[in-house]
Design brief:
By secondary structure, the protein is mainly beta. Helix content is 11%, strand content 42%. The longest helix is centred in the first third of the chain and has 27 residues, at 2-28. Mean pLDDT is 84; it is low at 1-28 and 110-117.
Length: 856
């Protein structure tokens, strides 16, 4: 037995050595050749030039940058390079050696005895009888069969890499004293490339996932296997939010979509159904050396200012009329904010059925305040698709487990060896250092101090470790009831606990001489920050503070200093005492529900009063007490957002958002004086309209069942500030309208400069047209209308005895606006027109409102 065991080891060892020797011998016969093919005269790279291994039938083509790479098995010693219009060139290579062979092709000049040139008017471009347009129409007609959705099943592995850098940095900037200890961070590249010579990487992320598509019933499933990114200190930067923001800006490019999303804008695809109406097409080359034969199709916008691409397509002439390669860029004059340069390259590979799938995409966008020079930011996203399988159905259980996106538990813990083995292409030496360099940077005291200052300025909170003070914008404000108002508060951070959170503030009004305060305690049920998705927490809180009835703000505190400036009379407020207990549960599929129990006491302040009789001033009451329970459902499929320090900002996309809320008043419970049922539902949707921009549409409806005083009815959202508010009625006064049933529609149309871009001189300003229309139809049942029910709580009147509060009993309230956006790239100004109820006191039929909005 012992002899047999020893003999087995010897034989296995000999076999292993033999295999290693054979492998070394085989590897010795492999020749790896790479390089770049350029024009010998202009030095420009030549994309999609053909090369062949001399003496064989194997070869390939250069990519969109003129680069190539080939591994040769066998004792071959020559490569032959060719391209239409250039002389064929043969290059000698050394077998068994990895080498770089750059090639310069000479233009093929033709000898002519005499050339006669006659001047004449250039014929106008037109689609009719244009062979380039006929070809693009064939590409459009064949789009359905060339898309992934043509197959019953598709599976592939997807590798993504995102790199974000400060770019176009001068030597003077690089050598500033502040960067004396940070020179290791800088990268250098060819100065002719996007981003310039000096780059300073500030973020990098890699992601490896397996994707599965099923046609019927349609389902897309993505399993994230590995995810690696630069992790900043959570006190300063929300890493998950940053990743979501970049994902929104740099989405996958599908040339077969009618519209392609780039930096949160939609650009019309050159092969969109209506592309011939917006693009000019030209046949610029025929590549006969490639199989199948390719046609090089150049395209450019009819109007250089429109949100359109320019570039080249390479179309297969095998009957599929598929895109084999694409190069997309934009005109420097395009109405796209802060974008100095944009370049996208798409490469396709052939499937076993001779059709094509996207194998690699590369998108680079350079941003800057100045279009020509100065420092900026450059983002580059590279996506590689491998292991592409068609019509190989996986087990049905794959689509049943989890949602559409599943992240394996150890995705963020993969080793360096795993990444080295699974990247389709190795990282460059410079990019491989980015993770380590930025980790070193974050440990430097100077960087921490800088980030602390920046975070305080941007987020509004000053961090003291387990506690942060803020928000700064609420420390001081003023109004007609409280006078000057000072406030100080803050909240705990994850440095104290990942499960327990506390928030508080105290405020004092120097006119009403009253203290206001707030205290809340929150317990996270999923051991994650209560500000991170998905939320799952229980919160108990008490708040005593003022509120303007009818003012509802999104993502902004009501005592924000800038909201202190208001038009018209603004002296009606409520003193509120809120006791609340809330439970919030979000799911990975972006469905959420919340349950709430609230005890609410509201008392009038300023010129607001609660009066049970129109004739007797002595029948006024001091307070209204209610107890209520609320169930709210929300579904926002595919929602993405950026998580800031103060609030979570949704990144608006094409997917609708559904809200449904039910509230029941509990009479006799915890002092509740009224029993009622309130229902509220809304749908928000962005409609992308190709070259006409996009429209944000909100449809909302509500119904209040029960006999109620007007403060418990639906007080419609009004705005008396000078800021344009998207969800409020900008020429409606606070507490002007109440209803117990209503329906509304809100349309905000952004044309993205479609009309201004066609007006000479004006188009140079890169302004954008905006329009809006809002309509509100509602009413009051007799039991809740004090004009018909003397026992109902009376509407508020002014000092002249004229109603300030009203029912919508003379038709709908309507207002609209036309405006100019993108002024100085950040400002929108609207001229707002009110169309109805113009006889009410202290209302204006016209108004100018402004809104600051940072957008691309």
């Amino acid at each position: 037995m012992r002899y047999t065991f020893g003999r087995s080891i010897i034989l296995n060892t000999i076999a292993l050595l033999a295999m290693v020797l054979l492998s070394i011998g085989a590897y010795a016969q492999q020749t790896v050749v790479s390089g770049t093919v350029t024009d010998a005269t202009t030095k420009e790279t030549i994309p999609y030039a053909s090369f062949m291994i001399t003496g064989s039938t194997k070869g390939g083509r250069t990519d969109a940058d003129g680069k190539y790479n080939i591994t040769i098995s066998g004792n071959y010693s020559q490569l032959t390079f060719s391209y239409v219009g250039y002389k064929t060139q043969v290059k000698t290579i050394k077998p068994g050696v990895a080498q770089v062979v750059n090639v310069q092709l000479q233009s093929e000049a033709m000898q002519m005895n005499e050339v006669v040139i006659k001047g004449g008017k250039k014929p106008p471009y037109r689609n009719k009888e244009n062979p380039a347009v006929e070809l693009i129409r064939k590409v459009i007609a064949n789009k359905p069969k060339n898309r992934m959705e043509n197959y019953d099943y598709v599976a592939y592995q997807k590798y993504e890499r995102m790199l974000f850098s400060m770019s176009n940095l001068s030597e003077k900037f690089k050598n500033k004293r502040i960067f004396r200890n940070y020179q290791f961070l800088f990268q250098e590249q060819d100065s002719t490339k996007i981003g310039g010579k000096n780059m300073l990487p500030v973020y990098q992320q890699e992601k490896l996932s397996n994707s599965y598509f099923r046609k019927n019933p349609e389902k897309m499933k993505t399993v994230v296997v590995a995810d690696k990114q630069v992790n900043f200190d959570e006190r300063f930067v929300d890493n998950e939010g940053l990743s979501s923001y970049f994902d929104r800006m740099y989405q996958d490019i599908d040339i077969y979509d009618n519209n392609i999303s780039v930096v949160s804008n939609l650009l019309l695809s050159p092969i969109a159904d209506g592309a011939p109406g917006f693009y000019k097409f030209f046949i610029t080359d025929t590549i006969k050396t490639h199989q199948p034969q390719l046609i090089e199709l150049s395209f450019t916008p009819r109007n250089k200012m429109d949100l359109l691409f320019e570039g080249k397509l390479y179309v297969t002439m095998d009957g599929n009329y598929a895109v084999q390669n694409a190069y997309l860029s934009v005109n420097k004059n395009i109405n796209l904010n802060f974008v100095r340069a944009l370049e996208a390259k798409l490469e396709f590979e052939q499937n076993p059925d001779s059709r094509y799938h996207l194998s690699k995409s590369n998108l680079i966008v350079d941003f800057g305040i100045s279009k020509k020079n100065g420092a900026g930011f450059t983002g580059e996203r590279t996506v590689t698709f491998t292991d592409y399988k068609i019509n190989q159905p996986p087990a049905d259980s794959l689509y049943l487990k989890g949602g559409t996106l599943v992240v394996v538990p150890d995705a963020k813990k993969k080793s360096e060896q795993f990444w080295a083995e699974n990247r389709p292409e190795a990282l460059s030496a410079a990019n491989a250092k980015v993770y380590r360099n930025l980790d070193t940077l974050q440990r430097m005291p100077g960087f921490k101090r800088t980030m602390d200052i920046v975070t305080t300025f941007v987020a509004g909170y000053k961090s003291f470790g387990p506690f942060e003070m803020g928000p700064v914008s609420t420390f001081y404000s003023f109004n007609n009831v409280e006078g000057f108002r000072l406030r100080l508060g803050g909240r705990t951070t994850t440095d104290l606990s990942k499960r327990y959170y506390f928030e508080t503030y105290a405020a004092y009004g120097f006119e009403d001489l009253k203290w206001k305060y707030f205290l809340s305690g929150t317990y996270s049920l999923n051991n994650k920050s209560i500000y991170a998705f998905p939320q799952n927490y229980v919160r108990a809180s008490f708040q005593r503070d003022t509120k303007i009835p009818g003012q509802e703000l999104q993502f902004v505190q009501e005592d924000n200093f800038l909201l202190s400036f208001k038009r018209g009379e603004n002296n009606m407020m409520l003193y509120n005492d809120f006791y609340r207990l809330d439970y919030v549960h979000e799911f990975e599929n972006h469905f959420s529900y919340s349950l709430g129990l609230r005890k609410w006491k509201q008392s009038p302040a300023g010129s607001l009063y609660f009066n049970n009789s129109a004739d007797n001033v002595f029948s006024r009451i001091n307070e209204i007490n209610t107890s209520e329970v609320t169930l709210q459902l929300r579904y926002a499929p595919h929602e993405k957002f950026y998580q800031g320090k103060v609030y979570r900002t949704p990144l608006v996309d094409k997917y609708p958002i559904f809200n449904l809320r039910y509230t029941a008043g509990l009479k006799g419970v915890l002092g509740g004086e009224y029993g009622y049922h309130n229902f509220l539902g809304s749908i928000d949707k962005r409609f992308y309209l190709s070259q006409l921009g996009y429209a944000d549409v909100t449809v909302e409806g509500g119904y209040n069942a029960g006999k109620l005083p007007f403060p418990l009815l639906s007080i419609h959202r009004a705005n008396q500030t000078y800021a344009y508010q998207l969800q409020s009625y900008n020429l409606m006064n606070f507490l002007e309208f109440v209803s117990d049933h209503y329906a509304s529609i809100n349309i905000d149309q952004n044309f993205n400069g479609f009309f201004f871009n066609k007006i000479p001189l004006l188009r140079e300003l890169k302004l954008r047209e905006v329009m809006s229309f809002k309509a509100l139809y509602g009413g009051l049942r007799d039991e809740n209308n004090p004009a018909k029910n003397p026992e109902a709580l009376q509407f508020v009147r002014n000092q002249n005895g004229v109603h300030i509060t009203n029912a919508l009993d003379n038709g709908p309230y309507m207002e609209g606006s036309v405006g100019i956006g993108n002024i100085f790239k950040v400002l929108r100004v609207d001229a707002v027109k009110r169309f109805s109820y113009l006889d009410h006191p202290n209302v204006s039929s016209w108004g100018i409102r402004a809104r600051v909005k940072f957008d691309f």
